[in-house]
Amino acid sequence: MPYKEKEIEKRYFTIGEVASDLGVATSLIRFWEREFSIIKPKKNRKGNRQFTQQDLKNVKLIYHLVKEKGYTLQGARDFLENGGTENAGDKIELIESLKRVRSFLVELRQELH
C-alpha cells in the first residue's frame, strides 16, 4: 500500500489571509467582527488577530449572506440568531466545492483549445 502524505491543515489565519481569501479589505473583516458575535478571533500578545477554521467559516457565512445574498447587516444578524447557521454552512461548503470544480473545468477547457 503506497504511503500517502497527510495534508497539513493550518490552525490559524491572519486577518490579511482571511480578507485576501474573500477579496475584501481587512477593515471590513474588523467591522464584521464588531457587528457579529460569531466572529471571535483570538489575539496574540501583539494584539494580532488569529482566526481559526471555525472563525473562517463564520466570516465566509457572513460574506455569503451580505455580499452574495444581499442581506442587510440586521437581516444577517437575525438570520444567524434564528439558527440559520446550520443549513447555511453546508450550502457555503457546497458552493465553494462547486466553484473549485468550475475553475478546474475552465482550466481544462483552456488547455484543450
Summarize the structure.
By secondary structure, the protein is mainly alpha-helical.
The first-level CATH class name: Mainly Alpha
Total of helices: 5
Strand order of the largest sheet: 1-2
Structural class assignment? mainly alpha
Question: Largest sheet, described in full?
Answer: 2 strands, antiparallel
Residue stretches low in confidence (pLDDT < 50, at least 5 long) are none
The share of residues in helices is 55-70%
Describe this structure in words.
- With 113 residues, the protein is mainly α.
- The protein has a single domain (15-112), classed as Multidrug-efflux Transporter Regulator, Chain: A, Domain 2, CATH 1.10.1660.10.
- Helix content is 63%, strand content 4%.
- The chain is built from 5 helices and 2 strands.
- A two-stranded antiparallel sheet has the order 1-2.
- The mean pLDDT is 85.
Protein traits:
two-stranded antiparallel ribbon, mainly alpha, 113 residues
Task: Provide the fold topology.
Layout: H1 15-22, H2 26-35, E1 42-43, E2 49-50, H3 53-68, H4 73-81, H5 85-112
Antiparallel strand pairs: 1-2
Helix pairs in contact: 1-2, 3-5
